[in-house]
């Protein structure tokens, strides 16, 4: 395989996983906090948005 193709695939995979894990991790934290505070979707939605913002920021830093 071509080295440039492999490098592009690794970068794309890394970017996708970073985005998924940021959003998923923050949603998981929100889910746990919702269980503690009994505010069912509130913390999960707020932390999901924070995770999305963080994920896209990390994605921007990787691509830049």
For the sheet with most strands, the description reads: none
Report Rg.
15 Å
Provide the number of structural domains: 1
Secondary-structure class: mainly alpha
Q: What does the overall shape look like?
A: elongated
Helical content stands at: over 70%
Beta strand %: under 5%
Distance between the termini: 25 Å
Overview features:
64 residues, mainly alpha, elongated, 0% strand
Structural overview:
Keywords: Membrane, Transmembrane, Transmembrane helix. The chain crosses the membrane at residues 9-33, 39-60. The protein is mainly α. The protein has helices spanning 3-37, 42-63. The protein starts with a helix and ends with a helix.
Per-chain topology:
Blueprint: H1 3-37, H2 42-63
Helix pairs in contact: 1-2
Short overview:
This protein has helices at 3-37, 42-63. The protein has 64 residues and is mostly helical. α1 (3-37) packs antiparallel against α2.
């Amino acid at each position: 395989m071509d080295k440039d193709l492999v490098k592009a695939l690794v970068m794309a995979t890394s970017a996708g996983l970073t985005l998924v894990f940021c959003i998923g991790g923050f949603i998981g934290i929100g889910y746990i906090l919702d269980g503690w505070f009994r505010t069912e979707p509130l913390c999960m939605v707020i932390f999901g948005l924070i995770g999305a913002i963080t994920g896209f920021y990390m994605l921007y830093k990787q691509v830049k």
